TrEMBL record:
Protein name: ABC2-family membrane transporter
Lineage: Bacteria, Pseudomonadati, Pseudomonadota, Alphaproteobacteria, Caulobacterales
Segments forming a coiled coil: none
Glycoprotein found in the keyword field: no
GO molecular function, one term: ABC-type transporter activity
GO cellular component: plasma membrane
Transmembrane segments: 20-44, 64-86, 107-136, 156-180, 187-208, 246-268
Length: 276
């Protein structure tokens, strides 16, 4: 029955072109446009392109994916997640859906479809970053290479997985907030605020704990955990004492996703839907 719920939710999302575009396509397209715009500005306005530079395509992809769940990216991902997770409250359609399947399956299906959409959004980001690198190299006469730092496809897959997991912590939070607030706007504001506060706290705590193994306070922040995992994957020699906490960081991210998902399901199963 879960498979039926997933198929139905996926079909509903594919018909919601606004949610697909603004939630999962807009941020990658903006990043692509800004990259091309910067190259055009350098070529035709400043008219002094930096000579001798080489563009590493995999390096471009890794940079784009690392920022895939940044505050800007998270804003639009949560717009899409809110449309999926809280849209039935807005349109008062939960009472039509709950007789057809269990509440647990219905909410889990929504989260799984959000996860699929986030994955495709990150994949679009990676593809557009390659196109931007090729076009930018042509505009400014730069040389192209696969990677200037010896990166490979496995690094891309690793960073994609880490960023996806980071985004899913926000998606699971969105499920909780959606059930509690019954509001798409509430989901976006709460998740964006959570992401922004994490960024501030992580920056402050990093300054206080320089050259030390990260404390539990830092490791409790999904933003820091994702950054640590990406650094441990791409530049383990520069991580220092924090490298030993990479396993803990991965476990914390998984606990965030699992805990928030379980909380959302628990709340939804006990929610009164006679008034939406």
């Amino acid at each position: 029955m879960l498979a039926d719920a997933i198929a139905a939710e996926r079909f509903r999302l594919l018909r919601d072109r606004g949610a697909i575009f603004w939630g999962f396509c807009f941020a990658p397209l903006v990043g692509f446009a800004l990259s091309i715009g910067g190259d055009l500005f350098l070529r035709f306005v400043i008219k002094k392109p930096i000579p001798g530079l080489t563009v590493g395509l995999i390096d471009q992809v890794l940079k784009a994916l690392s920022n895939g769940a940044s505050t800007f990216g998270a804003l639009f991902l949560m717009i899409g997640a809110a449309a999926i997770l809280a849209g039935d409250y807005r349109w008062e359609t939960w009472r039509l859906l709950t007789p057809r399947n269990t509440r647990q399956n219905l909410l889990l299906a929504k989260l799984i479809v959000v996860g699929e959409a986030v994955f495709w959004s990150l994949l679009l980001t990676a593809i557009l970053s390659v196109f931007a690198g090729v076009i930018g190299a042509g505009i400014n006469g730069k040389a192209l290479t696969v990677s200037m730092a010896g990166r490979n496809l496995f690094d891309v897959i690793g960073v994609l997985a880490i960023t996806w997991l980071e985004a899913m912590t926000l998606a699971a939070l969105a499920a909780c907030v959606g059930v509690l607030s019954r509001s798409t706007m509430g989901v976006v504001i709460a998740c964006l605020g959570f992401r922004f506060v994490q960024t501030i706290l992580a920056s402050s705590l990093r300054m206080m704990e320089q050259n030390e193994a990260p404390s539990w306070k830092l490791l409790a922040l999904p933003v820091f955990d994702a950054d640590l995992l990406r650094a441990a994957l791409l530049a383990p020699e520069q991580v220092g004492a924090a490298g030993g906490s990479a396993g803990v960081a991965l476990a914390v991210l998984l606990v965030w996703v699992a805990g928030l998902t379980a909380g959302a399901v628990w709340l939804f199963r006990r929610q009164d839907l006679t008034k939406e």
